[in-house]
Design brief:
With about 210 residues, this protein is of the alpha+beta class. It contains 5 helices and 6 strands, in the order H-H-E-E-E-H-E-E-E-H-H. The chain folds into 2 domains: about 30 residues, no CATH class; about 130 residues, Nucleoside Triphosphate Pyrophosphohydrolase (Alpha-Beta Complex).
Length: about 210
């Protein structure tokens, strides 16, 4: 049955392709939207102050007992770095410089990026609509967080750019346009986190 259906589709494929190529762009967009899966892109990350303390939040719309990282959803036309800086400004009235990508993960309906950044200006003031509380924590004194979030924070503290900066404190890294420093992310180091390549540890190239 499946083979017969595919055979029929092959037979009418030239006709369908011709119709599609001649269709207006808005109609082609509708067809693409209907026939493809929908994915929401989320961006959050580890935001540090000058003392290397991590800023964590209790979100009103999440589990109020658990602390989480600042972030939000990507808007049309944004890149992930601009999205995270925007969310930090909106939720916390802070400016941030992005130091790199820690990891990413995907579910059926979401693709989530986790970044590493540092506060570069502003005065902490939470948005009471979304945020219940915001506090800085030392890495060895973190409050209850999800297992994945704890792994992201641990990975961030071992990020290569931070190691290089610690080994050469007299050297400064020039920020790229958009407040981004060293956007190349590390590889996956444990069973839950993926690096920028998305490959599991030990996987070779295809």
């Amino acid at each position: 049955m499946r083979g017969m259906m595919k055979g029929r589709l092959v037979g009418i494929a030239p006709l369908l392709a011709g119709i599609y190529r001649r269709a207006p762009h808005w109609l082609r967009g509708v067809v693409s939207w209907v026939t493809n899966g929908k994915v929401i892109v989320g961006v959050s990350g580890v935001l540090l102050n000058d003392a290397d303390q991590v800023l964590l939040l209790r979100h009103r719309f999440h589990d109020e007992r658990a602390w989480g990282m600042p972030g939000g959803w990507l808007s049309p036309g944004e890149d992930i770095f601009a999205c995270w800086r925007r969310e930090i400004r909106e939720e916390l009235a802070l400016d941030a410089v992005v130091e790199g990508i820690i990891c990413h993960r995907a579910t059926r309906r979401t693709l989530e990026f986790y970044l590493l950044g540092r506060i570069s200006g502003g005065q902490l003031k939470i948005d009471p609509v979304e945020i219940l509380e915001a506090r800085f924590f030392r890495v060895d004194e973190l409050p209850p967080t999800g297992r994945f979030s704890a792994g992201v924070i641990g990975r961030a503290m071992r990020y290569p750019a931070r190691v290089e900066a610690a080994s050469a404190p007299g050297e400064s890294k020039a920020a790229q346009p958009g407040g981004l420093v060293n956007a190349a992310g590390p590889g996956r180091e444990d069973g839950e986190l993926r690096g920028v390549s998305g490959k599991r540890k030990g996987e070779g190239s295809a």
